[in-house]
Amino acid sequence: MAYEQIAVRRDGSVVTITLNRPDKLNAMTGVMSDELLEVFTSVRDDDDARAIVVTGAGRGFCAGQDLTEFESAYRAGERPDIREHLEQSYHRLIPVVVSTPKPVIAAVNGVAAGAGVSLAAACDIRIAAEEARFTQAFVKIGLIPDSGGTWLLPRIIGYARALELSITGEVIDAETALEIGLVNRVVDGDALEDEVSGLAARLAAMPTAAIGETKALLRGAALLDLEAALHAEAEAQARMGQTDDHLEGVVAFAEKREPRFRGR
Ligand code: LHQ
Q1: What is the pLDDT of residues 78-92, one digit of tens each?
Q2: Into which CATH architecture does domain 6-204 fall?
Q3: Whose CA is nearest to atom 44 of ligand 1?
Q4: Rounded to an integer, what distance in angstroms lies between the CA atom of residue 220 and that of residue 214?
Q5: Comparing C-alpha atoms, which of 21, 14, 11, 125 is closest to residue 64?
Q6: What is the pLDDT of residues 28-39, one digit of tens each?
Q7: What does pTM read for this prediction?
Q8: Which residues line ligand 1 (CB under 6 A)?
Q9: CA 22 / ligand 1 centre spacing (Å)
């Protein structure tokens, strides 16, 4: 399938999605959002796709909403209906990224701004190039953090830091992002692709059904008390106990060999 604003590559069971508007730092348009939604939706049901990488072409990861999409309306003094725009794009895309039952890695190759930070935050693991920068740019144009920004960021870096970044719009570099836990690792820009493809391949070889359940449990646990979390764990563990991968894992351990997991 050919896409207009993203590129999709398959290496074995790893799917790499590249935001592909490098001249505009991969700013998000309606087309890009629809294309991402389509890939994430199709990968969800594809048993052979077992890890996903999201990255950007050129020197940006994603500069957030493409502000030129509304430019002529703004210049004419009009106030666009942002609610409708959000509901049509980010409200469909971000929950699908977050709930994808496969490991999703953001390879943050360059600047991430606004909804670009939300997209990275919706992924499970963020590996940043040294050149990466992050800004909750919304406030600089008189907006609040949308596209999940109020929900995702505090969960990753805590309330105080999320609030500070959100009300200042401060641009932070990759090292600072690492210090505050916004990214899991920072690597030399030239090493980013190898680092991420190695991690993605390792994750794709894991029991990915258990990874999907773990993601859902960790996400849901914040809303539960301990008793309810224990119950949810038992329900999921009962399902995992029935998988081929659980059997294979235990047998491989007993036989002192590497397990061969298949994601079911
Ligand atoms: C861009 C953009 C961009 C278009 C760089 N759009 N062209 C949801 C719903 C509805 C409305 C509003 O918002 C939202 C959610 C949001 O995401 S709001 C936040 C939107 N994003 C921003 O406000 C970030 C705007 N961009 C910037 O602040 C800077 O470009 C950053 C800090 C990202 C990077 O700065 P530089 O490295 O200095 O690059 P640059 O500014 O020179 O940009 C390079 C090119 O990319 C340039 O185009 P040009 O044709 O002049 O070379 C920019 O115009 C274009 N670009 N961001 N969001």
Answers
A1: 988 899 999 999 999
A2: Alpha-Beta Complex (3.90)
A3: 24
A4: 10
A5: 21
A6: 999 999 999 999
A7: 0.97
A8: 24-25, 27, 63-68, 82, 85-86, 111, 113-115, 135, 137-138, 141, 143, 146-147
A9: 12
